[in-house]
From TrEMBL:
SUPFAM superfamilies: NTF2-like, Sigma2 domain of RNA polymerase sigma factors, Sigma3 and sigma4 domains of RNA polymerase sigma factors. PANTHER family: ECF RNA POLYMERASE SIGMA FACTOR SIGJ (PTHR30173:SF36), SIGMA 19 FACTOR (PTHR30173). Residues 110-161 form the RNA polymerase sigma factor 70 region 4 type domain. Residues 8-71 form the RNA polymerase sigma-70 region domain. InterPro entries: ECF_Sigma-70_Domain (IPR052704), NTF2-like_dom_sf (IPR032710), RNA_pol_sigma-70_dom (IPR014284), RNA_pol_sigma-70_ECF (IPR014303), RNA_pol_sigma70_r2 (IPR007627), RNA_pol_sigma70_r4_t2 (IPR013249), RNA_pol_sigma_r2 (IPR013325), RNA_pol_sigma_r3/r4-like (IPR013324). Interacts transiently with the RNA polymerase catalytic core formed by RpoA, RpoB, RpoC and RpoZ (2 alpha, 1 beta, 1 beta' and 1 omega subunit) to form the RNA polymerase holoenzyme that can initiate transcription. This is RNA polymerase sigma-70 factor. NCBIfam families: PRK09636.1 (NF007214), sigma70-ECF (TIGR02937), SigX4 (TIGR02957).
Amino acid sequence: MQISNEDYKQFKPLLFSIGYRMLGSVAEAEDIVQETFLKSYQIDDQKIDNKKAYLCKIMTNRCLDVLKSARYRREHYVGPWNPEPLLLESSPEFDDPSEVVLQKEGLSIAYLRMMEHLAPDERAVLLLREIFNFSYLEISNIIEKTEENCRKIFSRAKQKISSIEGESLNYEKNKSIIDRFIQAFQMQNMDALLELISEKVTLYSDGGGKVKAAVRPIESRSNVLAFLYGIIKKAAEDFYFEVKKVNGQPAIVIYMNGKIQSIISFYISNDTINEMYITMNPDKLPTH
């Protein structure tokens, strides 16, 4: 298949967006984008009617292979698994304003974590249909199942992740909640914290066995706050943080020794923090 520089620029962000949402890994998504383009060069042009559809088919099916492979199963992962945070402002994939549409939905850490409850085919159909607006006919050609089957898979996937439907994606509103949370936390203003954090909040701490982290989810407001205050007590003197756009939503980026030490992302619903995701595994953190 003849892929021009223009084709590469046009389709790379879409392919990366599919790969990242399917796998929750920046590095793996980038690798499979390159594999997809390399494979496309080996295809006879005569057989290709639609470059975009064909590239999406290669990309999606390669992601399905990875998801189904033994090495991707997370049975042996130490502690909770969080998707790899994506700092949009530092990602070359999202430099062009025309690509903003690819950031909109299905990108939050909460959504990507919920995707873990889906079978690989369910994940592919849900993303292609709901996030990328592919028709059922196009999806059936991509994953090689009937349209009717794709509709059933989509319906099943939607039911499985219905609990995430109430997620707030209003960036400014969510940033205001995070700013208030930080202020209340620093001042140890319990009344404000009680208002901002759900009593049933759950914190998922991902160290991947590489750094010290909670090996089980931490549940309840009092336990989560105790855990966070414990981290602050042990923090290095040069500890500082910034609120940055991560996965399209405000998150707390924590720095120690001049580099990113962890990223805290949030699931906010009904103006309340319902889940927190602390990613500390150095393999998942940006190096700049």
